[in-house]
Amino acid sequence: MHMHNLGIHQADGLRRADTEGPVRVIAVTGGKGGVGKTTVSVNLAMALSRQGRRVMLLDADLGLANVDVLLGLKTERNLSHVISGQCSLDEIVLDGPCGVKVLPASSGVTSLADITTEQSSGLIWAFGEMRTPIDDLVIDTAAGIADNVIRFSAAAQDIVVVVNDEPASITDAYALIKILSRDHRINRFQILANKTSSLAEARRLYDKLAKVTARFLEVHLNFMGHIPRDSSIKKAIARQCGVVEHYPQSRAAKAFEDMAKQTERWPQVSGSRGCIEFFAERLVHGGAA
User: Fold this and answer.
1) Are 56 and 93 in contact (CB under 8 A)?
2) Full-prediction pTM beyond 0.85?
3) How many Å apart are CA 284 and CA 102, to the nearest integer?
């Protein structure tokens, strides 16, 4: 990282903000493993791209990188090389399907809490210096409620919580929302029911979560809808592709397209570069509001 270029890069960033508009940062999470976060992240990114958005997908599962595997992409460098100062974010970007740009995960870093102050500064700089033009940054978080999951979720502007009809899904989603609300003062969450048999089932899952959060937390939940059980998703995973890309007429693909359209109705982004530097700063400093 070339620190002497600070003034130049800041000026470039402001010019980009003026000419390209703000960037939306969306974290896809859920608390529990197996709810389909990566499938949702990948296909939401593709659906946004198909609607004319410039999309980047960040694999934030630092322990078990899987976006590149799901999409059959070959990686040589990842986020760990950026954190260690060996390269820039632009140098690790992969060209994914449907025009989506992919930032592969850092399997060499177990926790962002363990990186040095210098590495933290380097990561903030990496996002500030990024030249790849984007409108949306979609983050695929890891499972659970460990430090990295909380950090990536708390640093994002919008949080999509994925739930499904499995034991502990609602319980784990509630635990995640509770931590983000209590420790990071986040009070707005998008709830998406995945792998559901019907809209009625999806509504029941949402109502169950909304009932317990309304009782104990001061948060606002928005029902995003649901992604139906669809054999096309399994076929897409087997082909290492997205259902939006290869099965665009499927029920699941249409649901992802509807989900992408919903983001247009979310509160607008504001601020220089649309929170990219702000996202990076909150990320390395623990997601403090």
Assistant:
1) yes
2) yes
3) 20
**Burial letters for 133-165: b for 16+ Cβ neighbours within 10 Å, e otherwise?**
ebbbbbbbbbbbbebbbbbbbbbbbbbbbbbbb
Q: And the tokens for 145?
A: 């409620």
CB proximity list for 22: less than 8 A, separation 6 or greater: 268, 269, 270, 271, 273, 274, 275
Reference 233, options 218, 248, 219, 252; nearest CA is 252
SS3 label, residue 77: coil
Q: What are phi and psi of 283, to 5 degrees?
A: -65, -50
Q: Residue by residue, what is the 3-state secondary structure of 174-232?
A: HHHHHHHHHHHCCCEEEEEEEEECCHHHHHHHHHHHHHHHHHHCCCEEEEEEEEECCHH
Please give the order of strands across the beta sheet that includes 24-29.
94-95, 101-103, 55-60, 136-141, 24-29, 158-163, 188-196, 220-228
Cβ–Cβ < 8 Å for 217, 179: no
Q: Helical H runs in 54-168?
A: 67-71, 79-83, 89-92, 117-129, 147-155
Q: Which has the closest alpha carbon to 25: 37, 36, 41?
A: 41
CA-CA distances (angstroms) from residue 90 to 99, 101, 118, 188, 276?
Answer: 15, 10, 20, 31, 14
Q: What is the pLDDT of residues 213-257, one digit of tens each?
A: 999 999 999 999 999 999 999 999 888 889 999 999 999 999 999
Element of type H or E holding 29: strand 24-29
Specify the pLDDT at position 122: 83
